[in-house]
TrEMBL record:
Keywords of the record: Hydrolase, Magnesium, Metal-binding
Record protein name field: 3'(2'),5'-bisphosphate nucleotidase
Cofactor(s) it depends on: Mg(2+)
Reactions that this protein is recorded to catalyse: adenosine 2',5'-bisphosphate + H2O = AMP + phosphate; adenosine 3',5'-bisphosphate + H2O = AMP + phosphate; 3'-phosphoadenylyl sulfate + H2O = adenosine 5'-phosphosulfate + phosphate
Signal peptide: none
Species of the source: Gossypium arboreum
Family: Belongs to the inositol monophosphatase superfamily.
Keyword Acetylation in record: no
Amino acid sequence: MAYDKELAAAIKAASLATRLCRKVQKALLQSDVRSKHGRNKSPVTVADYGSQALVSFVLQQEFPGEFSLVAEEDSNDLRKDGGGEIVERITKLVNESLTSDGSYGVSLSSEDILKAIDCGKSEGGSQGRHWVLDPIDGTKGFVRGDQYAVALALLDRGNVVLGVLACPNLPLTSISFAHPHSPNNEVGCLFFAEVGRGTYMQPLDGSSTVKVQVSAVENPEEASFFESYEAAHSMHDLSSLIAQKLGVKAAPIRMDSQVKYGALSRGDGAIYLRFPRNGYREKIWDHAAGSIVVTEAGGVVTDAAGKQLDFSKGKYLDLDTGIIVSNQKLMPLLFDAVRASLAQKSKPQP
Ligand SMILES: Nc1ncnc2c1ncn2[C@@H]1O[C@H](COP(=O)(O)O)[C@@H](OP(=O)(O)O)[C@H]1O
Ligand SMILES: [Mg+2]
Ligand SMILES: [Mg+2]
Ligand SMILES: [Mg+2]
C-alpha cells in the first residue's frame, strides 16, 4: 500500500530509539536531566536528544533527499557552554544503539548528532510530507520511572497517514485497573497504524502482531477513563465533573504520555480526557501518532467542540479548549457531558 516503506522505516526507527531510552531509564543519572529554558521549564534528558538524533538519522538514511521532520527538541541548549559533556554522552548512546542494530555501519561524531537533532526544525503544514516526532513523550513519566512513548507519525498534505507509538513500559496484556503498574506483567508494546488499514500491536521485543480495536462499551457506567498523571497538564477536577455527569464509576487511570492513546486503542479504557489549563497550546507531536492509532482502531478523537484535530497548521494544534477521545457509541454522551461541565465551570460561583 501507499506508505508501506515509510511504516517499516518508522517501526525500525522507533524501536531502535526505545533501546536507547530503556538503557537510560534503567540507569538515569541526575546529570542526564536538564531543564528547558523559558517559561515552561519542562525536563529534557539525554534520552530525549538521543532518541531524536537516532530517529532523524534512520529516517534520513531511508529517505535521502525527501526529508522533512517536525520534532520537539533542538540543539540550542546543547551548543551552549557546558553542553560538551552531555553531547559526548548522547553521541556514545546513539552510536551504541546503531551498532547494536547492525544495519548502519557508521560512527557519528558529536557534530553529526547535533545536526541530526536540528533536522527536526521543519514547521510542517498542509503541503507535502512531514515526519512528526516526539522523541520521548512523557519525559516527566520517564524520569519518574513510569510510562513514556516514542511517538512518530507521517503527515501527507496535512493529514496523519501513519503513526507508530512505542511504549516500553506498557504491559502487553490489558492494564488491570486494580493494579495498573503490576510488576509481574511483561512490558513493552509497539502500536502502529496506517490510514485505512487498522491498528496493530506487537511486543517491542518480538514479532507476533495482533489487530486491536477500541472498547465496545456503550454504557458510561462501565467505562473507565484516562487522563494525564500530571495535574499541571490537564484539569483533573474538570474530568472528574465530566465523569460524574456521565455516571462513570471507576476511578481515573492516570498515565503519562500518548501511551493513553495506545491503551485506549486496544480497549483498556473507553475514554481519554485532556483539558490543559488556560493558554496552553498543544503541539502536533503530542497527538499525531496517538490520534491515528485510536481512529484506525475505530475510535474518535476531537476537540471539545467536536471538531477533528487539524494537523495542517504547523507545529501547533488550533483547538477549542481540550481533547476528548472515545468510541463511536459513547462519543455523543461524552460530548454532552463535556459541554455541560464546561458551561457549569464557567459560571460565576455564588
Ligand atoms: N502545562 C501543560 N499543559 C498541558 N500539556 C503540557 C503542559 N506542559 C507540558 N505539556 C505536554 O504534555 C506532554 C505529556 O503529556 P501527558 O500529560 O499526557 O503525560 C508533554 O510532552 P513531553 O513530555 O514530550 O514534553 C508536553 O508536551
Ligand atoms: Mg518535552
Ligand atoms: Mg510530548
Ligand atoms: Mg517529548
